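Aim 2 progress. For DNA 3'-5' helicase, the working sequence is reproduced below.
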Amino acid sequence: MKKVTFTAEQTAIITTTNARAIVRACPGSGKTYTLCARVRRLVDLGVPPEFILVLCFSNAAVDELKQRLPDGVRVQTFHAYALSLVRNAASTKSRHPVLLTPTRSVQLLSSALKSCPNACSSVRQKAGITLRSLVETKGLAAFIRQCNGSDEVAARLVQDGKFSPYADVLAELRTIRGAYDKLVEKTGAVDYPGMLRRAQSLVQTAPLRYTHLFVDESQDMDAAQAQLLMGLAAQIQNLMVFGDPNQAVFGFIGGKARDMGDVMRDAVTMRLTRSFRLTHENAALANAIMEGGGSQIVGVRHGVTPSLVACDSVIAQEDKVVNLVEQLKANRPGESIAILTRTKAPVRAAEQALLAANVETDSMYSPRLPMHVDRVLDMLSLVQMCVFTAKAGRKPKKIWRTRRLQEVIGQPVRPVVVADCLRMLAKAARIPSFEGRYVMATRIYLRLARAAGDMPKNLASELGRWQATSRRFRTVAALRAHISELREQEPVVTSTIHGAKGREWDHVIVLNVTEGSIPFYREVDRNETDEERRLFYVAVTRPRKTLHLLQAPFAHAPSRKQHAEPSRFLTESVLETLS
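Predicted structure tokens for this construct:
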């Protein structure tokens, strides 16, 4: 068996005799590896695996830890564990708590609105919103779900724009939310935000068999999760919490870099400062960005100095991205590449530029849908056949076209939908350009997918990404061959920085390191840029090898603002670490 070598810091955590410990782990420090080694040591020392509980913040983390931990160790998200507490408390009752579906949630909210006539009337007078209409009820349900029971998050959502019409009626909405929560509990159900709130009271008296509790990524805890952890800490003697306050970037949903000392006053603080991911040069940049806040990261090897390139325009930045990617693919084939941005718009433009340069991308915020793309190409073949039939002066056969429509979507189609699609096929037969026919094939397919209930949220945008490419071809076979060839490539990953947290690649390109983007203009207006600094820190700590920062002036359409100055985070000390 291969002998595993741990650093002194890791060994101290794995073998500690302290009952409670707060582990501050820098990016790439082997945090998960150390956590798993600590659990295995406890099992080797005789702690039964079923007496160990590990709490995480995502299903992906749960799946990873389950594969690496001994059988019997319980690994769950905070919400899943909270739901189990709620259900166990009701195990002796006739009705078992059921997790609400979105549809049922809207139904209960409609009932709650009826019980709050004064609040609804006030909302109508102040904001001009009739909450009891179906559209507004669904919108309010989404707002309540995203608030996650937090007034602070509610205020932030209103400020961020999407829910700005609620700005003057938050008090009324709080009343409605209270009525909704009571109704949910009365019906024996539980919604996603309510899991944690109800579990907080239950954990004080719930019989717990666990002797050891571990928490991963503790910096992502919101207030409700912190309260639940405090309840667990009161009953479980041995507690070890892993996290990095410098990576607390989910304040917009209530997650904050909380002082774990407030939750675990008797805990010792231990550190993992050596990053096995970062080079000395990338670590120096990360330390400079945080301006000495917290522990200094130590890299494990020398590498390439991170670069900063100032571009004259967004177009020039996209050209630079294409050049960088082509160079990396040519010189270092097979190595992973990621492009990160603060928001989705810049990375979408970069995706189109890369696609035009015959480079495939894999988006973390809008997953690829190859099956649907293939079906649209089948639909495009049908459009081409209709064009050929029309040019030949032949009368199209309705039965044959109807059968082909059903074959493309893979199931029977209602007559009204067939009629709509046949009309669109007739229009498509008169479109002269191949690109125009591709657009019409997409519209027909979207109509079928919507009717069939097989329509992912990003389907329209995923099919639309091939529109510009289609104009370079004249036949379906050629376009299909081109798409198949791109699928054989190792794709360039594209993501927002939030989505990239916890991930790593060989090479990372960060776009728009420009004031107004990093930090984001809205946070600048609020004078709340600390989290934006941490977000930049997360971005620059993703690469194993090279890091490229690009800065360009840009116009932000929603805010109608022009942004041209380099990011305020590009301080003199930061610039000294860049080439």
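The chain has four domains: 8-89+203-272, 98-187, 307-360+492-576, 370-488. This observation will guide construct design in the next reporting period.
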